[in-house]
Amino acid sequence: MENTINEIGASVSSPINIWPIGMMVPFSGNAETAAELNQQGWYLCNGVKLKRNQYPRLFDVLGHSCGGEGDEFSVPDMRGTFLRGVDVEYGQEGTERDPGARWRMKHNSFAEIGNKVLSRQNEEIRKHQHVTAKGSQFVRVEKIGMTIFPLVFSRFQKAREGKAIFTTETGNSEMRPVNVSVNYIIFAGLPASSV
């Protein structure tokens, strides 16, 4: 049993050899705490630029897909975004779980690059329509005041022959699931100069 604990302790104290370069993970610390991990090879996913000659293995993974040029490249900028599994495997057809995949954009611009790792999609709402057909018995109601109960309404309008009624705009600034914010960090490995 002692050997097993020692082996586990060894892998926990030196996991740098088992993490793949380019791995991103959610981190529950703030940006300042994340910066303290730089010396262990972790960087906040905020688009920061790194030097290619210092992190050649990370550059092999990312290239300039997230920005930068020449000897500088950027890590992914994950601020305010969700991750989504890429819907393609080894250049083959995907599962069509990402129906807009072919219009995905470069990570740091609006240039379309298609279904590639680290590509980005803008927010979107699935195509749909709300309409009350002409001649129906439904009414459009505009709310002018509200207490807990009763609701106060005015301007009841019945759909008339030849005139459809559209719903009033509702909602907020984005469509989103319940979520918890975290910082994403990426494993860059130790700089080439310190290895």
UniProtKB/TrEMBL annotation:
Under the heading Pfam families, the entry gives: Collar (PF07484)
The record's annotation in SUPFAM superfamilies points to: Receptor-binding domain of short tail fibre protein gp12 (SSF88874)
Report the domain of life of the source organism.
Answer: Bacteria
Q: Which residues form the Phage tail collar domain?
A: 22-82
Listed name of the protein: Tail fiber protein
Q: Which organism is it from?
A: Mucilaginibacter pankratovii
